[in-house]
Amino acid sequence: MNPLIEKFQRQGTGTILVTGAAGFVGFHTAHRLLSLGKTVLGVDSLSDYYDVSLKEARVVELQKTFGPSFHFVKAEIQNREKMLDVWRQANPKITHVVHLAAQAGVRHSLTDPYSYVDTNVMGNVVLLELARHQKGIENFVYASTSSVYGSNTKLPFSEEDPTDSPMAVYAATKKCDELLSQAYAHLFRLPVIGLRFFSVYGPWGRPDMALFIFTKNILEGKPITVFNGGHMQRDFTYVSDIVEGIVAALSNPIKDDGKNPPHRIYNLGNGNMEDLNAYIAFIEKYVGKKATIKYTGMQPGDISASLSDISRAQKELGFEPKVRIEEGVRHFVDWYKTYYGV
């Protein structure tokens, strides 16, 4: 186990607030924290952006496995009154925040920008306000995205690279979250850490993500749509590796030196770039069927390649991704077949 996480496990903490707890990464993060013996308050709006029954099943899984250590509240994070009520009723008091709730997806942000600004920007401000008004908040960790690198062409993406050219509304809202977090850290000395996730995949994944869609369609004998003629490369990162990075960050708050804002950004990726066609080949292998592929052009707001420089997270958080792409795809396909009984 990562020494930072080992120390965190032994450390006494109050309640850990996990927003987006019924979501893909939120579910896995809550599960990991609960397995470390922590008390988790999960908040999620259970929005119908995708299949609500999958979100509900994640919550039930946590309740079944961890009992009273996990408390769930249905709430929209941008609802100030509701979130204040949730915050005040936490017992024991909230000492750590893992803010993962968001309106996700690059492509959907083209058609519904209002929900992205409402949830991602206003929701973030509500949580930062609650945290800065309460004494004893030891760390505030939030999810950003590799999408903030936008039109950058230099690979791998480093935290030092410019992020002022977003190519999608989703990316712009996440960059806004980073700037707001920097401001709150500066003004109120709130310890804040932002994590830029790279192409997260794995069991219990979102139905709007490529791995889920490809697996479902191949099993059902339906064609899959592949953008940019298949000339796409991604830094696919298995969800358990992402979660280890989240917990390591949570256990290692930025120290306030009185000069610099206690705010730090980390890339969390696999550190390897995989060709989309190879990714599809692994899905075909474990599904046991060949895909019918329809190639099309590049989607607006999308990029053709992503690759993370994870040296900062490796050095400061002990972050070391372990799951290789083929193994991760196999785990997902196994979960999918079991969950959907196919």
Describe this structure in words.
With 342 residues, the chain is α/β, with parallel strands linked by helices. The chain has a single domain (3-198, 237-270, 309-322), classed as 3-Layer(aba) Sandwich (Rossmann fold). It has eleven helices and 13 strands. The chain has a seven-stranded parallel beta sheet, sandwiched between helices. It has a two-stranded parallel sheet with strand order 7-10. Strands 8-13 form a two-stranded parallel ribbon. The longest helix is centred in the middle third of the chain and has 21 residues, at 113-133. The chain is globular and about 55 Å long. 46% of the residues are buried.
Total strand segments: 13
Backbone shape: globular
Helix content: 40-55%
Query: How many distinct domains?
Result: 1
Give me the strand/helix succession. Answer: HEHEHEHEHEHEEHEEEHEEHEHH
> If helices are DSSP runs of H or I spanning 4 or more residues, what is the number of helices?
11
Give the CATH topology: Rossmann fold
Q: End-to-end distance, in Å?
A: 35 Å
- Strand fraction equals 15-25%
